[in-house]
């Protein structure tokens, strides 16, 4: 039968791994599965709360690598993951990695070097911007993985153009949407917006954490001023990522945000709290990868503060407005959504709540 080793390390991995583990259990465990948490994210708000709410069992193995520079963090993950694989009695049938974080690439590389088959869930996405650490992670992971499980049509085109053989590629759809569909009723029941005294469609939800936005003091200062302008138009809910929090405090910008009564700052939120707030928002302003997809599925306008997206279907087929670095363009988008009705997104093939079943089908047909 053989066993599969699943890797999760950082916040955006957990909602992708959860539905696949559950689909395997539903199918009577065609493979034994082991869950490895690298510890890239370790705070309760960035990790534990997702295990709780998404019903993921405690990891079987915790590598506890923690935060560090990219080279050090990636190196630590590789060394610890290789060491773990060496302690096992049997060689796994395969390793499954998801998304595009450092843990994804590090564990894919270790598997490939040991000659263990690797499957990549969310393969083929490309922003074509190598200044994004995730882009390097995507390219490297796909180059060494044996089975490439694709979430949106652009992924198929990208992998084909890169010369990857068709038999290594399968279109499975978006496993993150499986988690969203499953958790939406519980998210609604929390009434997160109502608890903040906010009505449906009346507020903006903001997230920011990309190095390109938060590591440069001038850029972060401009963004804080933009949030002040936004808050004059509608209340702003801003759960702050630890990386962003540290920068805001360091630059004295945190006090500026706190001084505005229309800006509700909070620590990072749980999956359900955030999902509920997203569904009720007038607009989401973000630099996240996954939020572009979640807002498209929910039909909520999303202003993405990035120059490129690896998820082009959220722009062509969905609700995503990519405004680049230009905050005047972002403001025009705010004006448009303040006036307009809720955005409408076209249904996307495989974003249907059943992608994890197709992942399991692909794993069975490739590896059993
Ligand atoms: C990582 C991913 C990014 C993803 C994001 C979601 C990479 C290259 N980046 O970026 O793709 O969108 O996660 O959050 O893998 N920290 C804590 N507690 C934690 C984790 C981090 O305080 O639990 C702090 C540390 O000071 C750390 C900083 O946040 O240095 C950044 O964390 P890191 O994992 O390096 O990158 P993210 O910006 O979170």
Spell out the key features of this protein.
368 residues, alpha/beta, Rossmann fold, 2 domains, seven-stranded parallel sheet, six-stranded parallel sheet, binds uridine-diphosphate-N-acetylglucosamine
CATH topology of the largest domain: Rossmann fold
Q: State the distance separating the first and last CA atoms.
A: 7 Å
The H-and-E topology, N to C, reads as: EHEHEHEHEHEHEHHEHHEHHEHEHEHEHH
Record field, number of beta strands: 13
Q: What is the makeup of the main sheet?
A: 7 strands, parallel
The CATH class of the largest domain, by name, is Alpha Beta
Which shape, going by the Cα principal axes?
globular
Helix content: 40-55%
Unreliable spans: none
The hetero molecules present are: uridine-diphosphate-N-acetylglucosamine
Write out the strand line-up for the largest beta sheet, numbering strands in chain order: 3-2-1-4-5-6-7
Full CATH superfamily name of the largest domain: Glycogen Phosphorylase B
Class from helix and strand fractions: alpha/beta
- Mean pLDDT over the residues: 97
Q: How many H/I helices?
A: 17
Beta-strand percent range? 5-15%
Spatial extent as radius of gyration: 20 Å
What number of structural domains do the residues give? 2
CATH architecture of the largest domain: 3-Layer(aba) Sandwich
